[in-house]
Design goal:
The protein is of the alpha+beta class. It has helices at 14-24, 30-50, 73-87, 223-233, 250-260, 279-292, 323-336, 412-423, and strands at residues 60-64, 70-72, 92-97, 104-105, 114-122, 133-141, 162-168, 172-178, 183-189, 194-199, 210-212, 243-244, 263-266, 277-278, 296-298, 315-316, 318-321, 344-350, 374-378, 384-385, 388-389, 399-407, 431-436. The protein has an eight-stranded mixed beta sheet, sandwiched between helices. Strands 12-11-13-17-15 form a five-stranded mixed beta sheet, sandwiched between helices. Helix 1 packs antiparallel against helix 2 (30-50), helix 2 runs antiparallel to helix 3 and helix 4 (223-233) crosses helix 7 (323-336). The longest helix has 21 residues, at 30-50. Homotetramer. It catalyses: beta-D-fructose 1,6-bisphosphate + H2O = beta-D-fructose 6-phosphate + phosphate. Pathway: Carbohydrate biosynthesis; gluconeogenesis.
Length: 447
């Protein structure tokens, strides 16, 4: 008799799962159409990835995308597959892709009510060496009655209807999180060509023992990151040090963090003060998945999902993972921010327009009395002498320094106003400052 133990006659496919969820929510079926089309695109990309060597799909296509990354042949193929499948689902009206400078507006006769933000092939720098890569997506509803435009995608991550990613590794897995449910994992069964539910309501560990970040940028790290890494490598309580794992593909690094616990970091630094990863189609979807699994996702100063985007390709710092690990990191950030909220990154630029003499630093910095609550602190990028960084610096050609500005007193509203004053350059004559990243909710004009 044939052994049937390996065959489940009542498997839960992705389509079945989404249809059941939609029925409970009394949906129209449009969301199911969208996910089915997305699954088809993921299956096609998975096949292309596995055949890439034979089909001559490795290598650079000879261009860069809108965010400056080199475009690989598989990038272009994946982007075309995703956009065509989403358009033909009759469920989308706006598609934001990493590979397109502007949002793709779906033709009027094919429009639906959903907005999709997607990175068709994350980790493309790893394609040629066969390291795991993936697809990241976030789905929103259109909330305005006007004609669709890229502005419709500028919603905070809290508005996500669903988000997730596909991982093309030793197997192809699709991880889906929805606003009404938890995190569920589906494995592609190539024998039947369907995604099968393999893990339901996934939860991240409260604390892990792995940290993940690119330590090649250590010379650019701020003191908080440096201290956190030291604590993980050389624990003072006698516990075992954390293991370091970094692949360079966000999908692979975050999926490992979800499965094993720990912390993933791509923080702001002096080289990338805005962060490196994109908010709409990388950080928001991953933050949504991690939070739904019981973890935390933050910039270091605010929850990723609370950020109101200003641009479809906006970059932000990101730290996410097990709640205890992220909280420990945030405590260190808080300590280095003077123990208070209201810290922002910025660029202090001292130009030749300032009168000759040593650049003034310190609490007052020449600000009007009403604005002397700001304290500028240089981030160890030049010699220090007590509290006066670079005391002998003479102004000549334009010089730039990355600074951190912290307000230690005042109501939340006053702190926001001071942040905005700082960002709009209310500093001594000849000294300009631009804030990174934007402070959500700060008015552009204050007085």
């Amino acid at each position: 008799m044939t052994d049937r133990s390996a065959f489940d006659t009542n498997v839960i496919t992705m389509t079945r799962f989404v249809m059941e969820e939609g029925r409970r929510a009394k949906g129209t079926g449009e969301f199911t159409q969208l996910l089915n089309s997305l699954c088809t695109a993921v299956k096609a990309i998975s096949t292309a990835v596995r055949k890439a060597g034979i089909a001559n799909l490795y290598g650079i296509a000879g261009s860069t995308n809108v965010t400056g990354d080199q475009v690989k042949k598989l990038d272009i193929l994946s982007n075309d597959l995703v956009i065509n499948m989403l358009k033909s689902s009759f469920s989308t009206c706006v598609i934001v892709s990493e590979e397109n400078k502007d949002a793709v507006i779906v033709e009027a006769d094919k429009r639906g009510k959903y907005i999709v933000c997607i990175d068709p092939l994350d980790g493309s720098s790893n394609i040629d060496c066969l390291v795991s890569i993936g697809t990241i997506f976030g789905i929103y509803r259109k909330v305005t009655p006007e004609e669709p435009s890229g502005k419709d995608a500028l919603q905070p991550g809290r508005n996500l209807v669903a988000a997730g990613y596909a991982l093309y590794g030793s197997a192809t897995m699709l991880v889906l999180a929805t606003s009404a449910g938890g995190v569920n994992c589906f494995m592609l069964d190539p024998a039947i060509g369907e995604f099968i539910l393999v893990d339901r309501d996934v939860k991240i560990k409260k604390k892990g023992n792995i940290y993940s970040l690119n330590e090649g940028y250590a010379k650019y790290f701020d003191p908080a990151i440096t201290e956190y890494l030291k604590k993980k490598k050389f624990p003072e309580d006698g516990s075992s040090p954390y293991g370091g794992r970094y692949i360079g593909s966000m999908v692979a690094d975050v999926h490992r963090t979800l499965v094993y616990g720990g912390i993933f970091l791509y923080p702001a630094n002096s080289k990338s003060p805005k962060g490196k990863l994109r908010l709409l189609y990388e950080c928001n979807p991953m933050a949504f998945v991690i939070e739904k699994a019981g973890g935390i996702a933050t910039t270091g100063h605010q929850a990723i999902l609370d950020i109101v985007p200003e641009d479809i390709h906006q970059r932000v710092p990101v730290v996410l993972g097990s709640p205890d690990d992220v909280k420990e990191y945030l405590e260190i950030v808080k300590k280095h921010s003077g123990g208070r909220a209201g810290a922002v990154w910025g660029e202090l630029r001292v130009g030749a327009g300032r009168p000759p003499g040593a650049v003034p630093w310190g609490l007052s910095s020449g600000l009007p009395a009403a604005r002397q609550a700001a304290r500028l602190r240089l981030l160890a990028l030049c010699p220090r002498e007590g509290d006066r960084p670079c005391p002998g610096l003479r102004v000549g050609a334009e010089v730039r320094y990355w600074v951190h500005c912290t307000w230690t007193q005042g109501t939340p509203d006053q702190i926001r106003r001071r942040q905005a004053l700082f960002s709009t350059g209310c500093l001594p004559r000849g000294v300009e400052c631009t804030r990174f990243p934007p402070v959500p909710g700060s008015p552009h004009k204050l007085w």
